[in-house]
Amino acid sequence: MLDYDVLILGGGIIGCSVAYELSKFSLNIALIEKEYEIADDVLYSYIPTFNNNKNNNKDTKAIIEKFNVRRKKYNYTMINNVDRSTEMHYENFEVINIYDLALGYGEVAFDNGVNFKLDEIVIDIEKISNGYRVVTNKNKFTCKFVINTLPEANIEDSKNKEDYNIKCFVIDKSYKYDHNNIMDIIEKDHNKILIVPNLCGDLYVYSCSKLKSSSEEALNKIKNVLLDLNENCVKGNFDIAYNSESIEIDDFKVEESYLKIRGKYYDDISKVTDISRKVCTIVTNSCNCKKKKDFHDKIREFYRYNYMSNDARNKLIKSDNKYGKFICTCCNVSEGEIIECIRRPLGARTMDGIRMRTGAMFGICGGSYCISKIAVILARETNKKLIDIVQHSSHSNILIGRIKEFNKV
Hints:
Blueprint: E1 4-9, H1 13-22, E2 29-33, E3 49-51, H2 58-66, E4 71-80, E5 87-96, H3 98-111, E6 115-118, E7 122-128, E8 131-136, E9 140-148, H4 151-155, E10 164-171, E11 181-186, E12 192-197, E13 203-209, H5 215-223, E14 234-242, E15 248-250, E16 258-262, H6 269-287, H7 310-319, E17 326-328, E18 333-334, H8 335-343, H9 351-358, H10 371-382
Parallel strand pairs: 1-2, 1-9, 2-6, 4-11, 9-16
Antiparallel strand pairs: 3-5, 4-5, 7-8, 8-9, 10-13, 10-14, 11-12, 12-13, 15-16, 17-18
Helix pairs in contact: 1-3, 1-6, 8-10
């Protein structure tokens, strides 16, 4: 007898959205992810995700509402510096937090019976008489149908592995800027600068070039647009590899009950919805299953202090005084919010997981004030030693070791 009907390999936003769609049906499903957290491919979410009438559909908008995804509307202006006569302006461009959406997919799938196997690396996929055997570093599983969304599958046949070299700079909200405007500035030779206010008030500024450049060169270009920019306002910068290939389903082995999803999510969230539903149709037709009558399509309640009214905050603090104890004072994140994000289904297990769920450690101090306090909370809630707490992956411990063991940093 097979262990599962369906095994999903990879817990990124595609894997989680496929798990969500399939969890609506009477299937025994497991998802295997090598990291401690799901949605690792959008963990940092430095590429902005726009939600507007041109690139989205009603179903996707309904999901965004249902999962209470953080979002904000801006005006969008495109300026062509090559041809000054060309300028485009749109209103009500909505930027959404793609990480919230990925977590919503995962949490609802989990609550509807999907078995998440985190911190497991897929080593081998073997065809057997009635399905597949998938071997990980910890287990061996058998299943009827495999859906492979692993990055190795995504890039192996990529023709354009890197169309653009993108450097992203995070500018603190203390820099004076019209935070209601997204600016898309086209330069010569297909270069561009994109300025996007993020949901906590900082700016994400992208220097996009066909040629590789240093961070210093990219920042100098940005200073020509963001006048009087003080480098003390630059909280960090990151390289982003980007290619224009869209997500697609490789159904070459569909008759053998094997699907591969190529490509990588970037900024068009409607593609995620479309791909997931197509995969779901293929799998459910193959497995001849029925829809669940007891499918629960709702995420569990949670609280975001910065998005609440004063009356709601006071009521919350009365019910649990930990919501009145601020751990990250730069971003007004309470101990209650940090504990809650750890205790949720598929809760945070890394410092970056807490950062992206709550907004803690995103302040101008870069977490220097609160990181030790958050590490203590994470260790306590997960019953781990402080030296076992990691920033992101299994090899990113925030403490290398100690001379003596203590309970606090």
